[in-house]
C-alpha cells in the first residue's frame, strides 16, 4: 500500500536545469508561480491544441491551486512533450511505463530567442539601477503583520489561497475580532493555517493499529512512534515533512510561526507537554501530514482523568483535518464513554469521517460478517446521521494477510478495500484547496451567527440598573435567546454553537462590554460569500476553460 507523490515526476538533472530556465522566463513576476495568464502565453509556443493544453493544465494543477510551482511545471512540460510525440493526454500518462528520465524536453518555438531578449532587458535594468539589488519577499507572508492589515492590492493575489488570505484580513477578521469569535469558537487564523498541508487524523482505542497504520503508509518508522498492547503513551504526535529526522516538543511547536498549531496554546501546558511533532524527509509527507492520537480509554481505564481536555483537542484537530479515520479492532467494538464524547465532538465534520475495521485477518469470514454488523450497530448509536458510514475492512500493516483465517475470498476483499482507502488518501492533496474553501465558508457563516448572538445579548442588557440580574437571566435562558436570534435573522438552527459550551465561556464575560450589531461588517461578509469568493474561483479556474 503506497501513495505516489503527486504530481511530482522523475526528471534528469540536465533537464531540470533546462526547465528551471524556462520556468524563470515564464514566471513573469518572479514569485515562483506560473499563473494562468503566464501559462497561456508560454504554452502557446508548443503549438498544441487548446483542448490538449486544457488537459495538461488540469493534470499538472491537480490540487486546483490556480498556479503551477516548479515541480508541477516539470510535469506540464513532460505532458507537452508526450503530446507532441503523439500520446493521448490522460491522468495516468505520467504514471505509465514512459521513461520520464530520458524524455526529451518539448519543442517550444522561438523560446531561446525570447530568453536571450529577456536577459538582455534585465541586464539593462540592472545597469539603470546602478547595480543595486533588492531582496523580494512574498507579499502574502507579510499580510498578517499589524501594519499591512488593511489594503492588499488585487494584483498581489496569485492563487486561490492568497485570495482567501486577503479576504480574511480585509473582511472576516475584523468581524471576528469585534465580536471575540476567537475567544468563543476558534483562534484567529494565521498565515500558516492557510499554507498548511492537508492533514489526516487517526482516532481509536489503544492497540487498534493507529501508529502501525502510519508506519505502513510511510514504509518506515518515525521519531516518537510507540506501539504496544496497552496505552504506551498519552501523546498527540504530528508526523510531517522536514529536512531531517527529529522530534520537536509541543511547547516549541506551538510558538513556531511556520506551523499551524499556535491555537493549541489555549489547552495549556498540561496538553503541550503531551504533544510533539515528528519530522522526517519523505515524499508522502510532502503532500500529507498525519496526526497520531493517544488511544481512547475504555473500561476501568476511563476512571483515570487526563490532565487536559482530550475531547476539546480532538475537536480542534478535526476542524483542521481533511480526513478523520476511526480505527476499530474486531475484538474491541465497544464504544466507551470517552469514545462517545470524542465522536460527538466531531459534529459538523461528518463528511471527513471514514471508519477502518483493522486487523480483520484475525477472524474468519463468518465472524467478520458478524463483527461488521456489530460495528455498524455500535456506530449507529453515537453517529447521528441518516447516511451509512463508509467502512474499510483490512489488515493495514506490513505482515502478509493471514489466509488461514480469511481464505482466498477474504484476501481478495482486503486487497480491494486497501485500494479503495488508498484512492481516498490519494485524493486528499487534490481536494485540499476545495476543502480549504469549504472550511473557510463554514467559518465565515459561524462568525456571522456568533456576531448576531453577541450583539443580541448586548441589546437585551438594560442601560442603567439591574445589569447583573439580566446577565444571569440571559445566561440561564441561553437556549431561548438562541431561538430568538434564529427567528429574527432566519438562520439555520443546525449552524448554532453548542449551548452548554457557549454558556460556560459566556459566564466569564461582562455582556454589557460587548459590541452592538454593525450591519456594515455583516454586509462585508455577505458580499465576500456572495461575490468575492465566486469571483476568486472564477479567476483561478483552468485558463483554457
Automatic annotation (TrEMBL):
Residues 15-86 form the EH domain. Residues 48-83 form the EF-hand domain. The keyword Calcium applies. It is a peripheral membrane protein. It is found in: Cell membrane; Endosome membrane. Residues 194-430 form the Dynamin-type G domain. InterPro entries: DUF5600, Dynamin_N, EF-hand-dom_pair, EF_hand_dom, EH_dom, EHD_N, G_DYNAMIN_dom, P-loop_NTPase. GO terms for biological process: endocytosis; endosomal transport; protein homooligomerization. Pfam families: DUF5600 (PF18150), Dynamin_N (PF00350), EH (PF12763), EHD_N (PF16880). GO terms for cellular component: endosome membrane; plasma membrane. GO terms for molecular function: calcium ion binding; GTP binding. The keyword Membrane applies. Keywords: Calcium, Cell membrane, Endocytosis, Endosome, Membrane, Metal-binding, Nucleotide-binding. Its main location: membrane. This is EH domain-containing protein 1. It comes from Morella rubra.
Amino acid at each position: 500500500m503506497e501513495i505516489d507523490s503527486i504530481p511530482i515526476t522523475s526528471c534528469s538533472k540536465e533537464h531540470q536545469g533546462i526547465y528551471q530556465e524556462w520556468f524563470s522566463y515564464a514566471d513573469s513576476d518572479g514569485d515562483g508561480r506560473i499563473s494562468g495568464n503566464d501559462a497561456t502565453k508560454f504554452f502557446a509556443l508548443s503549438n498544441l491544441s487548446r483542448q490538449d493544453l486544457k488537459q495538461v493544465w488540469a493534470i499538472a494543477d491537480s490540487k486546483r491551486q490556480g498556479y503551477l510551482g516548479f515541480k508541477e511545471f516539470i510535469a506540464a512540460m513532460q505532458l507537452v512533450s508526450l503530446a507532441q510525440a503523439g500520446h493521448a493526454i490522460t491522468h495516468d500518462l505520467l504514471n505509465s511505463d514512459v521513461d520520464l528520465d530520458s524524455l526529451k524536453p518539448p519543442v517550444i518555438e522561438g523560446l531561446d530567442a525570447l530568453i536571450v531578449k529577456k536577459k538582455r532587458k534585465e541586464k539593462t535594468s540592472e545597469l539603470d539601477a546602478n547595480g543595486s539589488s533588492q531582496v523580494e519577499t512574498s507579499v502574502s507572508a507579510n499580510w498578517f503583520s499589524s501594519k499591512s492589515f488593511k489594503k492588499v492590492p488585487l494584483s498581489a493575489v496569485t492563487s486561490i489561497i492568497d485570495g482567501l488570505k486577503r479576504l480574511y484580513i480585509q473582511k472576516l477578521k475584523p468581524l471576528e475580532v469585534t465580536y471575540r469569535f476567537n475567544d468563543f469558537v476558534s483562534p484567529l487564523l494565521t498565515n500558516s493555517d492557510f499554507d498548511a498541508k492537508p492533514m489526516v487524523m487517526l482516532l481509536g482505542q489503544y492497540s487498534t493499529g493507529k501508529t502501525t497504520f502510519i508506519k505502513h503508509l510511510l514504509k518506515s518508522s518515525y521519531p516518537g512512534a510507540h506501539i504496544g498492547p496497552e496505552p504506551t503513551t498519552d501523546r498527540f504526535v504530528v508526523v510531517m515533512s522536514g529536512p531531517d529526522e527529529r522530534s520537536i516538543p509541543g511547547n516549541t511547536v506551538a510558538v513556531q510561526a511556520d506551523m499551524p498549531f499556535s491555537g493549541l496554546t489555549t489547552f495549556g501546558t498540561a496538553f503541550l507537554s503531551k504533544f510533539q511533532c515528528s519530522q522526517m524527509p519523505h515524499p508522502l509527507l510532502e503532500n500529507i501530514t498525519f496526526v497520531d492520537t493517544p488511544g481512547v480509554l475504555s473500561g476501568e481505564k476511563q476512571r483515570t482523568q487526563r490532565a487536559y481536555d482530550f475531547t476539546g483537542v480532538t475537536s480542534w484537530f478535526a476542524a483542521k483535518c481533511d480526513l478523520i479515520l476511526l480505527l476499530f479492532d474486531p475484538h474491541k467494538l465497544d464504544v466507551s464513554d470517552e469514545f462517545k464524547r470524542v465522536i460527538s465532538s466531531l459534529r459538523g465534520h461528518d463528511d471527513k469521517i471514514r471508519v477502518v475495521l483493522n486487523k480483520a485477518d484475525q477472524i474468519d469470514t463468518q465472524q467478520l460478517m458478524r463483527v461488521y454488523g456489530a460495528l455498524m450497530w455500535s456506530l449507529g448509536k453515537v453517529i447521528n446521521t441518516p447516511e451509512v458510514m463508509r467502512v474499510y475492512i483490512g489488515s493495514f500493516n506490513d505482515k502478509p494477510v493471514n489466509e488461514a483465517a480469511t481464505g482466498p475470498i477474504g484476501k481478495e476483499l482486503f486487497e480491494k478495500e486497501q485500494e479503495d482507502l488508498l484512492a481516498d488518501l490519494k485524493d486528499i492533496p487534490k481536494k485540499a484547496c476545495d476543502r480549504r474553501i469549504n472550511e473557510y465558508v463554514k467559518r465565515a457563516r459561524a462568525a456571522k451567527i456568533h456576531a448576531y448572538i453577541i450583539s443580541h445579548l448586548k441589546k437585551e442588557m438594560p442601560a442603567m440598573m439591574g445589569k447583573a440580574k439580566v446577565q444571569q437571566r440571559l445566561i440561564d435562558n441561553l437556549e431561548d435567546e438562541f431561538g430568538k436570534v434564529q427567528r429574527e435573522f432566519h438562520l439555520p438552527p443546525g449552524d448554532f454553537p453548542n449551548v452548554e459550551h457557549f454558556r460556560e465561556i459566556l459566564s466569564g464575560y461582562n455582556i454589557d462590554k460587548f459590541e452592538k450589531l454593525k450591519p456594515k461588517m455583516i454586509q462585508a461578509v455577505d458580499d465576500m460569500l456572495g461575490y468575492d469568493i465566486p469571483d476568486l474561483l472564477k479567476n483561478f479556474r483552468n485558463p483554457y476553460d
